[in-house]
Write a structure and sequence with these properties.
eight-stranded antiparallel β-sheet, single chain
């Protein structure tokens, strides 16, 4: 009788620790799709304007983050990052001060920003009203 009790308890434990197909389905499902979060919906390469500028820029899948990769440009007075409708930055969204002239940087994008309208990323020199470089988001 004691052996049957031990076998019964062991069997219950094994069944309780196993996973069913519905458990596996649930565990592989998440509210945020990691591929969507990491994929870029828009991207472009920087080109030089008034100063040598290079690197790549990407917007994440949710359109809320702008990432500079292998970015490089010259030093300058009061450099800002704009999302603009044109390279001359007459209509733009200011993302803030340029964080550095060489490296990888990330900027937040407001959720209501229309990236089809503001399709240029511009490194704008305020003091001289000139673009150091830009990238077109495609």
């Amino acid at each position: 009788m004691r052996i049957y009790t031990i076998v019964l308890i062991f069997s219950v434990l094994l069944l309780a620790c196993g996973t069913s197909d519905s458990d596996e389905l649930y565990s592989n499902t998440s509210l945020v799709n990691p591929q969507t979060e990491s994929q870029s919906s828009f991207a472009g390469d920087f080109v030089s304007d008034a100063h040598p500028t290079s690197g790549m820029v990407k917007v994440n899948g949710t359109g809320t983050s702008l990432s500079f990769e292998n970015f490089k440009t010259d030093q300058g007075p009061k450099l800002l990052v704009y999302l603009a409708t044109t390279v001359d930055s007459t209509d733009y969204v200011n993302l803030g001060d340029l964080k550095g002239t060489q490296g990888n940087y990330t900027y937040k994008i407001s959720t209501n920003t229309n990236l089809k309208k503001y399709k240029y990323v511009v490194i704008w020199c305020v003091d001289f009203s000139v673009s150091f470089g830009h990238a077109e988001l495609k």
